[in-house]
Amino acid sequence: MRCAAGHSFDIARQGYVSLLTGKGSAHRSDTADMVAARSRVFEAGLYAPIVAAVAERCAHSRVIVDAGGGPGQYLEAGLTAAGDHAVGIGVDLSKFCARSAARRHPAALSVVADLWAGLPLRDGVADTVLSVFAPRNASETARVLGSGGRWVVVTPGTGHLAEIVRPMQMLSVGQDKTRRLAEEFGDRFGEVVEQRVQSQVRLSESALTDIAAMGPAAFHRTPEQLAAAAAELASGGPVTATLDVTVTVARRR
Ligand SMILES: C[S@@+](CC[C@H](N)C(=O)[O-])C[C@H]1O[C@@H](n2cnc3c(N)ncnc32)[C@H](O)[C@@H]1O
Question: The 23S rRNA (guanine(745)-N(1))-methyltransferase N-terminal domain covers which part of the protein (predicted)?
Answer without folding.
Answer: 1-20
